[in-house]
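Reviewers of the previous submission asked for a worked example of the structure-prediction workflow described in the proposal, so we include one complete record here. The input consisted solely of the amino acid sequence. No template or homolog information was supplied to the procedure at any stage.
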Amino acid sequence: MAATTDQALFELPLKALHEAAGARFGGFAGWNMPITYPLGVLKEHLHTRDKAGLFDISHMKLILVTGREAAKALARACPLDPAALEESQSKYTFLLDDKAGILDDLIVTRLGDARFMVVANAGNAAADIARLTEIAAGFDAAVEPLERVFLALQGPAAEAALGKAGLSLGHLTFMHGVEPREGWFASRSGYTGEDGFEIALPVAEAKAFAEALLADGNVEWIGLAARDSLRLEAGLCLHGQDITPETTPVEAGLMWAIPKP
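From that input alone, the workflow returned the following structure tokens.
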């Protein structure tokens, strides 16, 4: 996932697959991302609503937080009670500054008594890692950024397509996640308003898995432009646009995401 030398943009590990699919690329949050494919934005949007759209979201960052006081460290960083989460439960939350400004919006999943997965936005990843590491230093907790390919499969045909590709996640309910294989993380979640899954896996295993998904006639690559139209239609916030460090959860109308004391 090294940056390019000419434009200082990071490249996706599966870039060659996107090029072979006819993707048009553009910069987003420091990454060279597929914006559209030959279907075009409207058909990509509708395909996700009708069948299953495959998104490469490897620009986003997975951060593993572990240790005896991992829950306490995350509770210090976020308006969240990680210790109250059931194992495999995911929760939408925020990384806040000292004035309750939203530095980033996150998904935190409890994977064990002292093991949590944090999913952070691409443009904030480095700052998020630094802040979490600083906070964790005051606790018996460790922060480990992971290098993974991250794919989202969204739409009514997503579960069946995953099964055909050899990954059965039908037991997961919405906003729950597991580690189905060594080095993998998968959750029933997404950014489109559709039922779907987000799967992180080692780079060496990603190409074969993506090709297995695409072998299903119901699955098509979907670009960043349609991802944006889908999340807008679903009423989901984008950090840096709808919410920023100058915005508090109260001002953003997001108090539903903060547990009551």
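The two ends are 41 Å apart (CA to CA). We consider this example representative of the routine output the project will generate in years two and three.
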